[in-house]
Amino acid sequence: MFTGASNLAEGVDKAFAFTFIIAFIFIVGISVFMIWTVIHFSRKKGKEAKQFRGSIKLEVLWTTAATILVIIMFWIGWKGFAPMRKVPADAMVVTAIGRMWEWEFIYSDSLRSRELVLPIDKPVKLELVAEDVNHSLFIPAFRVKEDVVPGYDNWLWFTPNYIGNYEILCTEYCGLLHSAMVANTRIVEQDEYDRWYQELITASFVPEPEGLKLLRGTGCLACHSLDGSRLVGPSFAGFYGSQRTVVAGGSTISVTADEAYITKSIYDPNAEIVEGYARNLMQSYRELLTEEQIGIMTEYLKKMVEEEGAQDTGL
To answer: What residue numbers bound the domain in which 233 lies?
Structure first.
């Protein structure tokens, strides 16, 4: 009957099913009783009015029955909840980072992945970290969900039971692209996981440009794409040195996307808004990025344009 994809799913499903059945019975029963009461006690000519008194037995009956039902519901819910806070000693640990508007997963040795890949039948503990605003990590198939709050140490755990791909969602409204904050959980056999992990280690030896690390680490790539696709903000593809039509102080002007423009856009993002994009979505990074770091990011964006030009000319 209960076919959730993790060891915790059965307890959650039982609590939900019991509560749903009880609620359904009461909704139907109360509705039928109300309809019967309206019809049976409706005002009729020639019918003598009667006085009604309270019933102690009835009061005791429904108070006792309701108390018993609530205690049973609590007990079933507690049996489903208690295992969620008891992490096995051999659980593998993965850090799940939530930022607007993406999930990132850090394995041991600081290996990073946009996809949560796990071996089947092995318990995993997700340590939850928020880098900006409140998020909530929810994997429906596993019946696990916990808030991801800045400055608050939170976690969840589960043991995946079935091989397959499962959605990871954010269930705490976190801004414009909240609905697009989706990632993938892939459950595989242990040998396939070992191969994937080795590939992740190998990929980590390929040095990532420092500018790209900064763009990724500060969450810039959640709003600005590298491939030209439109997100919340303008794409970084062909960005450096291009002419931008911006709205500044109520006027529309053209500016060059050079280092001065980039610095101003990072420190005072609402001063000049590229035409066609919304205002007040980006906050100032004055306390988060130094001018030296902005210079490194600018050099990377400049190099991107140079490489795009070289590809266009076939060099």
So the answer is: 210-312
